[in-house]
Amino acid sequence: MAAQINPSILSADFARLADEARAVRGADWLHVDVMDNHFVPNLTLGVPVVESLARATDIPLDCHLMIEAPDRWAPQYVEAGAGSVTFHVEAAAAPVRLAREIRAKGARASMALKPATPIEPYEDLLPELDMLLIMTVEPGFGGQAFLDIMLPKIRRTRELISKHGLELWLQVDGGVSDSTIEQCADAGADVFVAGSAVYGASDPAEAVRALRTRAEAATAKASWACDH
Fold first, then answer.
1. Binding annotation for substrate
2. Residues at the annotated binding site?
3. Which residues are identified as catalytic?
């Protein structure tokens, strides 16, 4: 299974977003963190910036909504040009209905779990999703240290995906770097959000390639991938 690398523009220069999008050529998706200063204690960007980014890059947009009332707002991000929209299950009033609406509008539907949120209560929702995001830091700020206590949760999630025979992407976000990406891949992740590890590098495009190489090497040896 091919690893996907999604650079996070949260670590980019917000005054040069179009240039920063071009700097990560070869990336699979551009990860866009939307924060509302309510669900998380930070405020970033919204629909108008996503619309502008969608016009400025050929890399598809992976919008991660760290916001209250995603049932109301998520569909607008599909309309703005996002190819994948992630809502937090902790904030969604009707996650199945929301996932179906996102899909009906033409985007991939993804659900995110904060570190303290277990995966097991949501097992029955997995067939409604195209991707599941396991947060490996507390959402709200970039540059945080990777929480290795999330690795067992990633493994359990991969086991549930395999149990149901789903083609569900498993994304990790938070502290992903050249020193942690192999652990995530070995545990079962196949989509990796990387912020400072990419945009803090002298050559962001090369950082994307290097992260992909590490993730693919770890995946090739992982028991979950061999069994797939």
1. 8, 64, 140-143, 173-175, 195-196
2. 8, 31, 33, 64, 140-143, 173-175, 195-196
3. 33, 173
- Classify residue 80 as left (phi > 0), alpha (psi -120 to 50) or beta: alpha
Helix axes 47-56, 70-79, angle to 10 degrees: 30
pTM for the structure as a whole: 0.96
Per-residue pLDDT of the chain (228 residues; tens, 9 = 90+): 689 999 999 999 999 999 999 999 999 999 999 999 999 989 999 999 999 999 999 999 999 999 999 999 999 999 999 999 999 999 999 999 999 999 999 999 999 999 999 999 999 999 999 999 999 999 987 778 999 999 999 999 999 999 999 999 999 999 999 999 999 999 999 999 999 999 999 999 999 999 999 999 999 999 998 865
CB-based contacts of 123, cutoff 8 Å, min separation 6: 160, 164
Rounded Cα distance, 217 and 228, in Å: 16
Greatest CA separation found in the chain? 45
DSSP strand pairing (84-88 vs 61-66): parallel
Coil, helix or strand at residue 6:
strand
